[in-house]
Amino acid sequence: MGNPFEAPLVNEAVGQHIRNWRSYYEAKLGFRNHWYPTFNSDELLEGKPLPFELGGEKLLLNRIDGKVFAMKDQCLHRGVPLSRKVETYTKDTITCWYHGWTYRWSDGLLCDILTDPGSKMIGTRSNKVYPVQEAKGLVFVFLGDIDPPPLSTDLPPGFTDANRHVRVTRRKVEANWRIGAENGFDTTHIFIHKNSRLITGNQTMLPLGFAPKPNSDEPLFKIVKNENGQNGIYDMLAERGVPHFEGKVHGEVVCRAIHGGDKHIAGEISLWMPGVLKVDPFPDPAMIHFEWYVPCDENSHWYIHCATKVIEGPEGDETFGREYEALWKDLYVYGFNDDDIWAREATQPFYQDDWGWLDEQLFEADACIMAWRTLATETNRGIQTKGRPASTASGKSAAVST
Ligand code: FES
Ligand SMILES: [Fe+2]
After folding, report:
1. What is the distance in A from the centroid of ligand 1 to the CA of 99?
2. Fewer CB atoms near the end CB (10 Å): N or C, the chain?
3. CATH for the 146-379 domain, from 3.90.380.10, 3.40.190.10, 3.30.360.10, 3.40.50.300
């Protein structure tokens, strides 16, 4: 099939799209030099390393004296995954199970080789390590090579508010991360949620979709480039668009949005770099929903679903935890967002070989998706690519001379 972006252009409009969104199209594995959430903090136990795939890179994370470290899950010697058989002889190191090369978690230094303690390699090579920070019960890893900017530059506004309690459900979705982001931010995709048990179960209402007003010049989105580095886009259709509650074919009403009640939700929807959606409020007037689309590999993403609520007082977290287990897990995490997972996985085959980006035929209501692509093209800090840069000694010759 070849590379669609190198193919002769079908028409000028498609050519313009390729020029405008080139780096977005290339970011099949996500953007480099950004912070991404990985495990929940409570999954990483002291001295029990766990592997995680991020943007096509294999990582190994470990907690030592409370602090989390991340190292490339690949031995410098013969490239095997360290996680295949974890061997840790001291708290601060990990030893490769194959020939005993031993790395320091703090900086990746090859500090010893158990099978050849006199090797000249010792102290001259380092495995790649990744900056790590924890926030609100999530372990964030900086996937990149530059000095990391503050974590806050890659968090959506409000996520770290005081007394905001967060419950996370992480699932692997068999669709590229961009299919996830575009599903979440799509103003007419709510058609798939029309029979969701959340609507009646939580006395709320969703139209079949929000469409632009005919012949209106009002912009349908608002781009935000914050001083502190957060870059995002707001969908303005709830305010400036037209909600449709009846679906018609040949002028006859064939389906109607269910009126489950009068609770107002999803008034403000925004999407932030490097791929995190904020729905405020959702699924209840007192809650805010955040969801990350974290690239795992080219054809799958980690769907990191965060239910959040501000509750003051020392009991707040426990109270929210009980509410989450009793109510929200069923109605919202699974009852509602399973629809999105299903839709993303159904979309993936069309885009998998990249021709879908050229063959798709977007309509007026997709204005927000197009604007997101532009924002992501303009504000990313780099494109994640397969393989390469790992060792800090990558320029050195592969073999030691004896
Ligand atoms: S492959 Fe790891 S020590 Fe040889
Ligand atoms: Fe959805």
Report:
1. 5
2. C
3. 3.90.380.10
